[in-house]
Structure prediction request, 263 residues.
Amino acid sequence: MMKYSRSVQSSAAAFSLAIAGVAASFQANASSVTVDYIGLEKGGNFTAYYNGSSMGSGSAGLFKWTMVAEVGDDLIEADAGQTFYTFCIEFVEHIKDNNQVYNLVDQSLAPELNGTYPAMGTAKADLMEKWFGSYYDDVLAGSHKEAMAFQMGLWEIVYEDLALIGANVTDIDSSSGNGRFELDSSNETADTLVETWFGNNWKSAEQIDLIALSAPSGVATVKLQDQITVAAPAAAFVPSPVAIIPGTAGLIFLVGRRRRSRA
Prediction:
């Protein structure tokens, strides 16, 4: 199984230097893409609930895009003019058709700019990679049902309390104690499938490296929906040499994780 670790620098004296080094590294290696939205390849309609109140309704699943341009590191395996797929990780926002600009960030830092709901963090980012490792091939080979079940699982990971992920995903009953985030889809077979998938031993799956497409700061993009996609095989957030200073090595996880190596 592929493994990696995120380490923390324990020296308080080096902490401020480490933060400065990480910030310089992030700026030096900032990557972004300009993409055109093609449409929903597979998926369906959903309504989401948080603490018993509706978050809204919409369509989601396997989204298809055309790469217009990529700036910085080659983190997505699609050249200009080629297509690639994403899934939504930000239920309460929207996408537009053409010339969308996204920053490429470690998925633990996404979704961004979504108000009440914070970035998923490292523990959920690990679970998301295992979800992809378990079921993404089923989506590519399957139909709308598999795409909808997979999408529901991603939202469950992002929005549910960590300890309750996978508990009655489609049970719309905030008083049941089975989670604060629930989903209602237009496809009952997808509802059944996501419950089945969560009931399997999916957390033991080999993880797949992911990259988040995150909306840049600004009034025009604050409602731009963050996405998740499979990273290019060589994708990594590697700090520039000038940004590495004493005390920074243990804190690079703030802007991205090291590549995993076979154990």
Summary: The first helix runs from residue 15 to 28. The chain has a mean pLDDT of 75. DSSP finds four helices and nine strands in the chain. The helical segments are 15-28, 121-141, 144-159, 188-199.
